[in-house]
Amino acid sequence: MAAQLPVAAQPAKISLIQNNGQWQLLKNGQPYYVKGAGGTVQLDLLVECGGNTIRTWGIDDAQRILDEAHSKGLMVMLGMWVQHERHGFDYDNNLAVQKQIQHFKSVVDRYKNHPALLMWGIGNEVDLFYSNTKVWHSIQAIAKYIHETDPNHPTCTVTAGLDSMEVQHVLEKAPDIDIYGVNTYGDIAGVPKNIGRFGWTGPYMITEWGPNGHWESPVTPWNAAIEQTSREKADVYWERYVKYIKADSQHCIGSYVFLWGQKQEYTLTWYGLFTKDNKQTEAIDNLYKLWNGKWPATPTPSVGGLFINSKGASDTLTVAAGSLNNALVKAALLRASAEESKNPNSYKIEWKMLAESDDKKAGGDMENEAAEISGFIKKVKDFELQFKAPRQPGAYRLFVTIHYKNKVAYANVPFQVKDAAAEGGSKVLRFKKFDMQSFDQP
């Protein structure tokens, strides 16, 4: 079925130009720098923050998403989920390959004239854990069809990180790709440094970026990755945007921050810019400032650190089964009055304990949430918690969330519970008086 558009709606003319070595995306002849978000929720807030486009990974609910984006003045990088070898797709099966290509040709025919369409995202991380490079021939077939039938929208494909071999595959096997998309996290500094050296001289985008990935983070002795606090992530979003995205004005035509939403991936909080109940995190404040040039009216709280028995996440945290322990969180409200920032009554503090996830996957594949532990809280006072460790030995995480209005800060600490006899029985460690500290902001 053809897209149902208003009679007056016309597709935007999206083009690429290179002027004195600088690549630029144009929308209807005017410069268009992609200030994008990966996700399809909270679009009014995205507009308020200064964002101008969203990215999808597939065509599920595409008509509604395109229509809603258009109603809010947003553009869409419409993703085509080209099947992955790691999920069982066989690129030596010519019948299956042709069926997939025909499917995406019909998608192009259906949506190519939608006024919210910015570009086509043909495949996402098809190179992750693969061996059959014939997938690039499929991506080329789709991109070539787009160039033959859609004069208004460029093509993009996205790889998992940046690798010289994948750049060569795209150049040689998919020459109808106009824009190279890179999903990158802790390795983002290598993209502007290496992409030209690897042979790509055209425009590129950072199509996913955010905190350090769980696969590139420090781990505990029991192999639990240490997650950055929401404050640490906010700092990282700021630094990576300024130093590695916006700074490469010659070749980088924009980016899509990840994730404009929430999902379970390693933990409940690792990648989402929102919580499960749609609360905003501090990184959104920084995006607002980066895109708008000013701070939002309501500040987001910050977590300066979470400690169990005076130890932080980078220490080896082991407690005895059934023991009493103390946890302490440092919190503040940046850009608020000193009195408001230091007053515990300004906040709602929520504590949660989960078993370490036993359903960890790769590439963003769907995961089940970890099991929540109940009955662990013994006493709470201001920013301090006294809790009882589980009696079952194993790996756990203590989570804290600081709520202020509709915004939150969070942190979690992985810890290990061992048999009480091995740890010398139960004991309670108490803190010295804690003085609230303030935190610098970008």
What are the defining features of this structure?
six-stranded mixed sheet, 10 helices, Immunoglobulin-like, 442 residues, TIM Barrel, alpha/beta, eight-stranded parallel beta barrel
In short:
The chain is an alpha/beta fold and 442 residues long. It has 2 domains: 14-209, Glycosidases (TIM Barrel, Alpha-Beta Barrel); 301-423, Immunoglobulin-like (Sandwich).
CATH topology of the largest domain: TIM Barrel
Give the radius of gyration: 24 Å
Helix proportion of residues, in percent?
10-25%
Question: Any low-confidence stretches, pLDDT <50, length ≥5?
Answer: 424-441
Can you tell me the CATH class of the largest domain? Alpha Beta
Which assembly state applies to the chains in this document? single chain
What would CATH call the homologous superfamily of the largest domain? Glycosidases
So, CATH architecture of the largest domain? Alpha-Beta Barrel
Structural classification: alpha/beta
